[in-house]
Amino acid sequence: MSSPLADEPVEPAGDDAEPLDGDECAEYLDELGDAWEVVDDHHLEASYEFPDFETALAFTNDVGELAEAEWHHPDISLSWGEVGVEMWSHEVGGLTEADFVMAARMDRLYADASE
Ligand SMILES: C[C@H](O)[C@H](O)[C@H]1CNC2=NC(N)=NC(=O)C2=N1
Q1: How many A from CA of 74 to the centre of ligand 1?
Q2: Which of 91, 92, 106, when mutated, tests ligand 1's pocket best, judged by the most ligand atoms within 8 Å of its CB?
Q3: How confident is the model over 47-92, as pLDDT tens digits?
Q4: Per-residue pLDDT band at 1 (split at 50, 70, 90)
Q5: Residue 43 CB–ligand 1 contact under 6 Å
Q6: Mean pLDDT across the chain, nearest whole number?
Q7: What ipTM was reported for this prediction?
Q8: Which pTM was predicted?
Q9: How many angstroms is it from 51 CA to the middle of ligand 1?
Q10: Which of 75, 83, 84, 113 is most buried by a 10 A CB count?
Q11: Which H or E run includes 13?
Q12: Does the C-beta of 15 come closer than 6 Å to ligand 1?
């Protein structure tokens, strides 16, 4: 079951937005799957596992399409059987709600790919 957070819009933070603090990050993190962790209260990191390279590549492409559609982009690493993701709001210099919504959308993509 993916998080209702995935149904939220991915909204760019305002020009004067401040990054989320540790407590706010912890609250949002509770709504994400086990793949995710908050690092240094600055960015999200996840590792998704796959049976082979082909399925990992397909997920990578799905995440890329999501990022382009929402204009909010992760760093993605692709290996045999694994996709690593790092996510933060570059223009804010830390985490915003948009990052957690994107992470929840990736959890939903992963759940769909694992069916
Ligand atoms: C230049 C471009 O509009 C910016 O880089 C956009 C696009 N993608 C982005 N992705 C992320 N993760 N953070 C941003 O601040 C961001 N801003």
Answers
A1: 9
A2: 91
A3: 999 999 999 999 999 999 999 999 999 999 999 999 999 999 999 9
A4: low
A5: no
A6: 95
A7: 0.94
A8: 0.95
A9: 31
A10: 83
A11: none
A12: no
